[in-house]
Amino acid sequence: MMDYQGSLHKINKQISVDDLNGKVANYIPELANVPEDKFGMYLTNIEGEGSGFGDCNERFSIQSISKVPSLTLALLTEGERVWERVGVEPSGDPFNSLVQLEYENGVPRNPFINAGAIVICDILLNTLKDPKKEYREFICKLSGNSSITYDEKVASSEKLTGHHNRAMINFMKGYGNINNDVEEVLDFYFHTCSIAMSCKELSEMFLLYANHGKLLSTGEEILSAKRTKRLNALMQTCGFYDEAGEFSFRVGLPGKSGVGGGIVAIYPNMYSTAVWSPKLNEKGNSTAGIAALEMLTDITGCSIF
Ligand code: GLU
Distance, CA 123 to ligand 1 centroid (Å)? Predict the structure, then answer.
């Protein structure tokens, strides 16, 4: 049995957020208000036992981490047809790049860049009756926690400043890859990004992806083993904007980051972990988060590679 608690203790002792470079995201003004010294990590093993440190119980804006449950829900409601509207290749471009969309006729490279997640939200507006309510309920179900909800301040803040996303969605609409009203889709997309969760809650939610698509609590199969394999493959190749290669190189686990400073990573059959520190590198990934996860796979001597 791995001593995860001991590993987390070492990470907490050795990583000092003050010593690491990085800047809190400020293009969504509400995110700029988060203190830059926040740091927490939590790991839930496949038996459901958890350990954590620091600010692991404080909720933060999960931002792009929401792109994983969004895709999961789209696969459940729309099935394999989602792949007619979004690809499965790494982008190698920033998360909000317009250039690539033009080359590829409005079909986003993958569901974990902004344009791809916006198409997924457009799909969900058609497959769900009450999208915001049902999306929140889905997150609550996956994490086994009914109190998780949207941070309306973050959602409104992004609505005011989301010009890049607005440009991308209009562009895709021009190519016929958006069915609904662009403002309705954006409102839903900004809400999915504004979900607030702690590292503990995120690690519990993502255990599903380490557990062949089954909820640990009830054994209910949410995703088939095949779809779980595909989702994990996408996290591995597309989960870190144009830094997916570097993350694989340093950490060696499938994962997803968000500009709120959160990163989740899973080790199939072993654990799910989440780390939070809002200072981001120039690619938009948490510097302390990557360092902590690299230490975790180094100390335990285990990664998927
Ligand atoms: N809501 C953010 C945006 O669309 C998400 C970005 C991120 O976390 O990567 O710009």
Answer: 18
